[in-house]
Amino acid sequence: MARPGDAERATGYVVGGISPLGQKRRLPLWLDRSALCHATVFVSAGRRGLEIELAPRDLLTLTGGQVAEIVRTG
Description:
Layout: H1 4-11, E1 30-32, E2 41-47, E3 50-54, H2 56-63, E4 66-68
Parallel strand pairs: 1-4
Antiparallel strand pairs: 2-3
């Protein structure tokens, strides 16, 4: 995860409203493999406090995202 100031500079959006969808400039998205175990996930809808619920595979399709082992357990 990027530091808040770095995320704002990279996206042009305010932290809390940085959505993986509909960005002016598409940035890479990596989704932890564990998200695929869930029917839906929530991501920012582009405004603080507003979220969108969608299937993880749909998120990957819409963003061109990649699945990765991000979370360490144990």
